[in-house]
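Archive maintenance. Older records in this collection stored only the sequence; we are now back-filling the structure field for every entry so that each record is complete. The fields below show one back-filled record exactly as it appears after the update. Entries are processed alphabetically, and YciI family protein is next in the queue.

ARCHIVE ENTRY
Title: YciI family protein
Organism field: Nonomuraea ferruginea
Length field: 121
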Amino acid sequence: MKYAMLIFGDDREWSGLSPAEEQDAMKQVYDWYERWQPTGKIADGGAELQPRETAKTVRADGTGQPMISDGPYLELKEVIGAVVMLECDDIDEAARIAATWPLTAGMSALEVRPVMSREQL
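Back-filled structure field:
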């Protein structure tokens, strides 16, 4: 079954890293991929997201129509900064794999969720 590993952190903290600190953090992330990629537990790789200031938010306006605005308007310290797709037997295995992720500067929490699977009608 597929699980999404959501990586939370403060992207402002990440942006404040020196080049050497960022390089060290990324080396830890690459080492994590090198550990799990050969096991088949990483389903579709992952995606690192741009900082929150680059976002657009789509919400329903008062009439139910889509309204597009710049950036997220929720005042959150932690935002989703990346997503990794895992292929695991159950959520406990996915959580154990997630627990090995390097929680370096700018990455403070992980959330693991089963991915919905719907059959076409």
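Update note: DSSP finds three helices and six strands in the chain. The mean pLDDT is 88.
Entry marked complete.
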